[in-house]
Amino acid sequence: MVIGVAAGFLGAALYALSVVVYRSQADEIRPLAISSIKMWVAWPFMLFMTILIPGIAATFLPLVTIALLGTSVMFGAVVGDTVYLWSQERIGVSYAFPIAMSFPILTFFLTVAFLGEPLILSRLAGAVIAVIGVIMISNEQNRKKNDVSVSERQTRFVLLGIAGAILTMVLYATGTTLLQVAIEGVNPIAGNLVRVSFGSVAFVPMIVVARYSGMSLPTRRATKLVIIAGFFGMALGSLLYVTAVSYLGAAIMSVIASTAPLFAVPVSVFYLKEKLTRFAVAGIALTLLGVFMVILGDAFFMWFFTILGQP
């Protein structure tokens, strides 16, 4: 549990910091290029780590396991991320993010319905509270930034954007649930190599089509920064993510993964000199409370009521 929680939070922190870099280069590199570059950076790193630690033989897995690992990354880091960015361009982050980041709640129900996980109501309540806190933090961070106004979009595009955000939620939840099934009994390093291999191949035709459709090449400076951020956010981050899922399960890890905006707060306060509002503080408190409830489950309420009962 301790190793899984530590890996999950460290992975979420690395992802959050990498996103700050990606956003800083938004004018010089397209989102699809960012997604592909970070995946291609992760592949050689995971190959090296696999050869160094478990050995390449650890990737000789049953075809069903390989298919599940590949499907999990396609749902999450490939199709899921791409659909989310597409949705965000149409309805803005203030609308797309809350919908997409509700995926831990759906993940909870998927694991209960299909994986036989126990229906722990305190864990469900914790997931809901954490999601609300994350949404509060994210909305506060994006409050002063230019966003897409729904009133300025045609109704059809707005509905498509909302549908894209909902689809993102489903893809993230399904991908995380599939990963829990696939990674059982598999070395996390070898399993992640299989995942990034599928992702790396999948982005090749997507980039080819995008270039044929007129997508401009990123600047050299933006490419270098994305490579560095991709190493920490995707190469290391994805390994930590898979490790955490193998230790904690999909339901708990999905909540921890969704807390990435929490780690962007110190960057905003100390580096960007942004003011920490009461709304953001409330969001941080709710996020931490929700995470503790999810991790501890019923033990959280037992501890809470024990404290209340003390004189």
Write up this protein.
The protein has one domain (2-309). Helix content is 80%, strand content 0%. It is built from 13 helices and no strands. The model has no long low-confidence stretch (mean pLDDT 87).
Number of domains: 1
Largest sheet: none
Helix content: over 70%
Find the structural class using helix and strand composition: mainly alpha
Regions with pLDDT < 50 over 5+ consecutive residues? Answer: none
Q: Please give the count of helices.
A: 13
Number of strands: 0
**What integer value in Å does the Rg equal?**
19 Å
Rounded mean pLDDT score = 87
What is the molecular shape? globular
Percentage of residues in DSSP E strands: under 5%
SSE ordering: HHHHHHHHHHHHH
The N- and C-terminal alpha carbons lie at a distance of 32 Å
